[in-house]
Amino acid sequence: MLADEIAALLPRMRRFARALTYHREDADDLVQIAMERALGRSEQWEPGTRLDSWLFRIIKNAWIDEVRSRTRRAELFAPAEEGEHVGDDTAQAHQQRIALQKAISLLSEEHRLVVGLVLVDGLPYKEAADVLEIPVGTLTSRLARARDALQQLLADQTDTTRRTP
Amino acid sequence: MTFSDDILMAYADGELDPAERAAIERAMQADPAIAAAVARHRTLRDDVAAAFADILAEPVPARLQPPRAQTQAPAQAPALEAPPANVASLAAAREAKDARAAHEARRRWSWPEWGALAAMLVVGVLVGKLTPGGAPPAIAGSGNQVVAQGELAAALDRQVGGSGGNGGNAAAVRIGVSFAARDGRYCRGFVMGSSAGLACRDGDRWRIPVLAEAEPESAGGYRQAGSALPAAVLDAIDARIAGKPLDAAGEAAAKARGWRPAP
User: If one looks up domain A89-165 in CATH, what number appears?
Assistant: First the structure.
């Protein structure tokens, strides 16, 4: 049943949403909106095509809608805790995860989408281009620019850490 | 032979065909700079994946599960156990089926998209929940509109600055965001018992254009106060709000004017 197949993809949907929104609560709100849309128009999914790509496209569209009204809605969401919870791994690995999540949250929306699809979820270029409804060549050059921007942000973070005692 | 950085990136991402892969692997052996560029792409990819890997193992909040996935296991068991030839068991199976239909109907009400139904349709279902004990109903139909009355109307009139909620009373009204709508009228989001909605000032009354079932706060506690409003209510707010929500001083000023539109 389609609802069960969609439910099985929820962990990946949450992870993709987290790459877009950084905050856990906002990401889950986004997934919830996407789930409502997906279940409400499940007849639009074509059997034989990739269900994950279809769901990611719905998340992407929901997020873009969300971004448009973000200045207004930002104040309606309760302030969430910063990023990830501290797990029982070493503090250094935790720091690195936070630094990366933070850096990704500073990317442009376009860059966050390609990073979320290819680097976070691991989708092939063709599938990622399909989600974003762009040609593979455009996806490739956008991904290259997003990586450069991300490397730059990470380098800036390191510089800031060094300067701050 | 030189390669563009895009090609090296595609190689690191496993996107090239065998011939292209072999060409780049030869170049990596010949040129340490190419090998370093590939390593840089691979490291970033691995680091990003690792930064988000734990999220896959997190338990998925119940509110994100499709309604069917939530009910399926308990609902199907009794019907499957009933031998079809036995009359008594057929009756039992029918009962189980009815119970399942009722259960699914209840479940579906909690799915926020149903909050988008016209409030009039929802009133019959929710009015009981808004009415604790022998207190007068908190909402009433008036012509073709739904208006607040009783405890809800009083809270909408009086509560400002996030105050209110008389500790522990499940029916207590909590006022969420307050704002001026595009037509100048004041609107306030509220949660009362298991219901949530939006009330907009209309003359000396509070009209309720949207009413939906609130997220149950007992379900794990992952819902925070500000996001307890269901999606239908948030959408209704988004459709109406002009500018930013009121701060405490703005709410106090609006209350002082009797919630009449600012001049």
Answer: 1.10.10.10
Q: How far is B4 from chain A (nearest CA, A)?
A: 11
The CATH fold assigned to A1-82 is: Rna Polymerase Sigma Factor; Chain: A (1.10.1740)
Q: Which of A4, A24, A76 to mutate to test the interface with B (most CBs of B within 10 A)?
A: A76
Residue B37 has pLDDT above 60, yes or no: yes
Interface confidence, given as ipTM, is 0.86
Give the pLDDT band of residue A59 (cuts 50, 70, 90). very high
Confidence (pLDDT) at A134: 96
Q: What percent of chain B has pLDDT over 70?
A: 62
Evaluate if residue B198 carries a pLDDT over 80. Answer: yes
Please state, as a whole number, how many other Cβ atoms lie within 10 Å of the Cβ of residue A98.
15
Ranges of each domain in chain A: 1-82, 89-165
Burial B21-42 (b: 16+ CB within 10 A, else e): eeebeebbeeeeebbebbebbb
CB of A17 within 8 Å of a chain B CB? The answer is no
pTM reported for the whole predicted model: 0.53
- B-chain CB neighbours of A125 within 8 Å are 10, 13, 15
- B116 three-state secondary structure: helix
CB atoms within 10 A of CB A88: 5
